[in-house]
Backbone:
């Protein structure tokens, strides 16, 4: 619980930004956080965009370390597949009724244990392309993790779920023809000729999971393409696999994409191991929990 001025700019004018990252208990018993410096950079990009003071990286990292240390009993043990989810948050907490940045800010870190999404299986999900709503304007705030983006997504997301689609994919707001991202994850795809393809757009969040999967893909001799992706490429069967990637799930594999009257069905391999995206996902997860060498130096030990 926090006590905040009722006129706080976070409530009225949306001065609020957050981050999401995970800590893992590794095979050697040590707790490690995954690439927290990138979250520090990303929250500061958001702070700059919505006129909040930047958080020194050392303060950001120290706050995360302390939140983990003080809640270490909630850390899911190695082998369970779980992690401690870390949610740093900064809000304009100073009260003003004028449209202006607050004169006071509150920075908090919440932690909570989370399950492994894919404990029993690698779960394919159908996705729907959102029709009738946009997530982010081309020069708006879609590329920063500010609260308002998620408010804009609630209604389309609820509609998608009601229609039976757990995953909603947005196209660009200007032309409605280029793939942007899912509600809380980036779009990734692979091709028959070993390309890893992901959208380039100024209106999407730079996913740390995606950046890491791109490193792994390069390491596994994929050609990595970050480029505009026309929605027709999906329905013209350009991709053999499609996934949604982000901290929470790492990768959600997609088996169908619906858009108005168009449907794409992707063939699912009989065994997860035959999926290219699954192989990247497995390697990523093994590095996170210390089962494979951290050759990219992604992990930061906390105790
Ligand atoms: N895109 C959006 C809109 C998100 O909210 C998230 C989650 O943070 C992502 C992508 C995935 O980013 P990351 O891999 O850093 O969690």
Residues:
């Amino acid at each position: 619980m926090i006590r905040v001025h009722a006129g706080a700019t976070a409530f009225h004018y949306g001065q609020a930004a957050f981050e999401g990252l995970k800590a893992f208990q590794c095979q050697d018993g040590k707790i490690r956080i995954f690439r927290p410096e990138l979250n520090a950079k990303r929250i500061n990009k958001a702070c700059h965009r919505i006129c909040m003071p930047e958080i020194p990286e050392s303060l950001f990292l120290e706050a995360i370390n302390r939140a983990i240390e003080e809640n270490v009993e909630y850390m899911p043990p190695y082998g369970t597949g779980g992690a401690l989810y870390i949610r740093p948050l900064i809000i304009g907490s100073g009260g003003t009724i004028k449209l202006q940045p607050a004169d006071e800010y509150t920075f908090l870190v919440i932690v909570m244990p989370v399950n492994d999404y894919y404990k029993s299986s690698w779960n394919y999900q159908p996705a729907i392309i959102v029709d009738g709503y946009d997530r982010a304007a081309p020069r708006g705030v879609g590329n920063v993790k500010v609260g308002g983006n998620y408010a804009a997504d609630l209604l389309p997301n609820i509609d998608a779920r009601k229609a039976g689609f757990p995953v909603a994919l947005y196209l660009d707001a200007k032309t409605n023809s280029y793939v942007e991202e899912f509600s809380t994850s980036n779009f990734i795809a692979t091709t028959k000729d070993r390309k890893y393809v992901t959208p380039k757009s100024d209106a999407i969040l730079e996913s740390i999971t995606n950046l890491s999967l791109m490193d792994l893909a390069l390491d596994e001799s994929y050609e990595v393409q970050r480029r505009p992706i026309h929605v027709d490429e999906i329905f013209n069967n350009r991709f053999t696999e499609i996934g949604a990637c982000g901290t929470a799930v790492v990768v959600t594999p997609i088996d169908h994409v619906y858009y108005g009257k168009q449907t794409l069905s992707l063939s699912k391999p009989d065994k997860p191991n035959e999926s290219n995206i699954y192989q990247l996902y497995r390697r990523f997860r093994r590095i996170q929990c210390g089962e494979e060498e951290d050759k990219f130096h992604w992990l930061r030990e906390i105790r």
Observations:
- The longest strand covers residues 83-92.
